[in-house]
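Bumping my old thread because nobody answered last time. Still need a sequence for this structure:
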């Protein structure tokens, strides 16, 4: 397992994976080693971390109980804190917060208080900036937020002292091309979904992998998920659970008309292209379930592995399978 030392200012993006090759992403073997996805990390002492940004779930009532003692704890340990507007709105003293973009720009570590939705939003800010995230679960399921609220202060202390496990999660790069021009470029952690709007009718997305035509689906939609996203929407649509260290994408049709249209697992160095055929009325591209973009008949969606992974701090004594057992209630009657 690769060792990583964080110097407190992780601003340089890691080297990109060899995604430029055009071999088939379904059958061909990887010919070059790339960085492992999940790694243990050493961190230097606490003084290298001078600024922590706090991003919270909006309108969480218990933030007023959690945040004030947290800010005092950070101040007592010589750490400057920067809070976002959602966190500030929950405080009784009328404090003003910063936009989440400014919080991420000024921070060396992001502390996320919320559930998986808050984590997904924070991931899109942290990954391109090379900032680690320490996630504290204040939501319901919390697949990505591995620390409980009771573990907040011990987790902070361990992180600042370098006693933690760092998981580097693949981010998905998404380009939307319209009339020959790229009009949008995004990074997502879980999945990209092409799905129908309000009308109960099928859509017909065409899938191409590394220039090879795969098929034209007739389905309610199509999901392209990362290993992290394999336990989200893709799992609900019948896709497999993929360990975060498996360098892959999962392509899962949503309620396909043909039962033989099954999920595909391809390597993440592949270039995936999606375009619509047939009726394209009221079709959307949805990113991590948080942003919807209407698609037009000539649009082309390009999906690939992003250069910058998400650096996610996790409990050192909790394995991935322990989290699965806990969240999915495996083995319970």
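Sorry it took so long. Here it is:
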């Amino acid at each position: 397992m690769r060792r990583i030392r964080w110097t407190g200012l992780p601003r340089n993006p890691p080297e990109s994976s060899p995604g430029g090759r055009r071999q088939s992403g379904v059958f061909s073997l990887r010919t070059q080693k790339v960085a492992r996805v999940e790694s243990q990390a050493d961190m230097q002492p606490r003084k290298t971390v001078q600024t922590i940004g706090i991003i919270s779930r909006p309108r969480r009532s218990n933030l007023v109980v959690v945040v004030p003692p947290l800010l005092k704890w950070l101040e007592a340990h010589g750490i400057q804190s920067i809070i976002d507007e959602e966190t500030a709105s929950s405080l009784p003293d009328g404090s003003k917060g910063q936009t989440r973009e400014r919080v991420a720009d000024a921070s060396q570590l992001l502390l996320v208080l919320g559930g998986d939705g808050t984590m997904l939003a924070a991931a899109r800010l942290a990954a391109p900036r090379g900032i680690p995230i320490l996630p504290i679960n204040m939501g319901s399921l919390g697949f990505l937020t591995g620390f409980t609220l009771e573990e907040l202060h011990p987790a902070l202390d361990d992180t600042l002292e370098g006693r933690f496990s760092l998981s580097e999660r693949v981010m998905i790069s998404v380009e939307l091309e319209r009339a020959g021009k790229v009009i949008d470029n995004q990074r997502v952690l879980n999945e990209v979904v092409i799905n129908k709007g309000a009308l109960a009718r099928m859509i017909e997305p065409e899938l191409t992998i590394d220039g090879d035509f795969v098929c034209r689906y007739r389905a309610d939609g199509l999901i392209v998920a990362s290993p992290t996203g394999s336990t989200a929407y893709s799992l609900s649509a019948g896709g497999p659970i993929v360990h975060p260290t498996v360098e892959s994408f999962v392509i899962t049709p949503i309620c396909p008309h043909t039962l033989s249209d099954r999920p595909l697992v391809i390597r993440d160095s592949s270039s995936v292209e999606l375009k619509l055929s047939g009726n394209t009325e009221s079709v959307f591209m949805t990113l991590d379930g948080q942003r919807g973009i209407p698609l037009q008949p000539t649009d082309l969606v390009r999906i690939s592995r992003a250069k910058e992974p998400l650096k996610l701090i996790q409990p050192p004594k909790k394995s991935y399978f322990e989290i699965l057992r806990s969240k999915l209630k495996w083995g319970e009657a």
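The longest strand covers residues 181-188. Let me know if any region looks off to you.
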